[in-house]
Specification:
With 368 residues, the chain is an alpha/beta fold. The chain has 14 helices and 15 strands.
Amino acid sequence: MGKINILYFASDYIIGLSNTLSDQAKSIAELDSVNLLCIGGDKEQEAGLYKKYESLQIPLLRVKGLDEHKEFAKLVKIIYQVIVENDIQILHIHNNWQLAIASYIKVFKNNKLKIVYSIHGYRHNNKFKAFFAKIIIGFFLSMFADIVFAGSTELKKALPFIRRKCKLLTQGVEEDLFQINAPAQVSANKNIVFVGQFREGKNQDKLIKSFYNYSQQTGDFNYTLYLAGKGHLKEACVKLTEKLNLTNNVVFTGQLTRKEMFDLLTSCQLAVISTNFETFGYCIAEPYVAGLCVITKRTGIAEDIIEHGKSGLLYDKFSELDELLVNYLPKVDKLTEMAQVSFKNRDVLRWSEITKEYELMIKNLLNK
């Protein structure tokens, strides 16, 4: 078999080029068995991503309007021309608009084309919308996608119709976090972090109440809880903190740059995750890789990487979190030990390791 020609969609809806997709593209481009061509819109999630592709010498085609749900026929024509000119065998896509374009090309223009779809989420915070979204997405993926990559076992189980096509392939964490060369050493004065937008389902208010309950029960106020992010529920959380007299213990950092967020992670020893549902969960994965002891709801990637009581702590209800805080927060040696175990296993979230699995699966796809 010669080299595999892949057209990789590096943009996502509205945000344009994304950090996560650029890291995966870099890792795929380093495979000797692949010729990678990336395609993106005219926007970028964070300034400097276009220059990142240039510095890595990854070819990137910029198509105006690709990040918008408009001009379907025009985009089909442009992308089909790219496929023909570059003898593309696989389209790697990431959202339903891209699926529509890829499916049309496959059905009406090139039935030998293979479609690989990395699913990053659906409307999971609204149960009514989530129910129908899973059915609709699952149906179309079963019809048109050849492989579907799910970033966690929980997400893989959540989608009907596509169990045969759906493969577990975790997402990776930025290599910068792997430069941290030692896990956190937990001390009496604990720095604790949760990174997430202040919106429904993230539960920062319940997290604040759990720490209030902990302090009321134990008398321990030797901790600082850093809540990073922005959103329409932030002000209510600030007022709750004032009402509970925790202003000395809870810090609202606001929205952080990637560097500021990494710096915050390296200054903390624990992460407590309160999200109802994550399809993957970078709020779990990033502190895990950074060497923190992670206490998280059983959601997203959590149960794929954390063994309860050995490499972190898992809970379902906030009453359980209250008990975990009381039972474990004073035990600094045990928390440090769990951080050390997870730190040893963190390569499971390294793009270079994940891409080895990716390579095997796409080779098997073309050999069918």
